[in-house]
Specification:
The chain is α+β, with helices and mostly antiparallel strands. It contains four helices and five strands. It is globular.
Amino acid sequence: ETKDVALALDKNRAPGVSNFVIAIDMRSRPSTKLEQAIMELGPACRIIGSVWALSGAYTVSGLRNQLVQYFGTSDSFFIVDATNGKTAWYNLGPEADSRIRRVWDNVVKR
């Protein structure tokens, strides 16, 4: 049943539109402006806590560049382009960067 729902959702997707999951860790400031910006980028909803779903005609790096202006030096985020199997992140540190690349590259190569 879940697969059928996913296929139905994919068929309703406009050309060039991707589905994103955005996980946010805001430590330096309130997230109100960021949340408003996410809602203005396209159809979006909060999934749980600071995790959002967004649909829009963006690349994952373009979306990262749009959102980074709302983050301070102690904040971080991780974006998954669920449509195209790509990721982007901000301020997770070199160790996390290395771990993410190992996991993601392993999955992609299968």
